[in-house]
Design goal:
The protein is of the alpha+beta class and 84 residues long. The chain has a domain of 36 residues: Pemi-like Protein 1, Chain: D, CATH 2.10.260. It contains two helices and two strands. It has a two-stranded antiparallel sheet with strand order 1-2. Strand 1 and strand 2 form a beta hairpin.
């Protein structure tokens, strides 16, 4: 078991051994939930594919169509095959 203290701002430092065990890094999100018995459960935030929406968007850049993507994939496969 690990113990932490709540600051006057309501902040808690998660003990290092817990951060290490969960693989937490600065900026990571964690969830707090009270279970039916009133106990606090803490878990790492899980991400869905929808969380990645828009990460490749570049303002002003033309969006690639499915045809453009298929063409690029085909060209890459052809180049790889020619090199081997």
């Amino acid at each position: 078991m690990a113990t932490a203290t709540i600051t006057s701002k309501g902040q808690v430092t998660i003990p290092k051994k817990i951060r290490d065990k969960l693989g937490l890094k600065p900026g990571d999100k964690i969830n707090f939930e009270l279970n039916e018995q009133g106990k606090l459960e803490v878990s790492t935030k899980t991400y869905s594919i929808m969380d990645t929406a828009g990460i490749l968007y570049r303002p002003g850049q033309k969006r690639a169509s499915i045809e453009d993507m298929n063409k690029a994939i085909g060209e890459a496969i052809k180049e790889r095959h020619e090199r081997s």
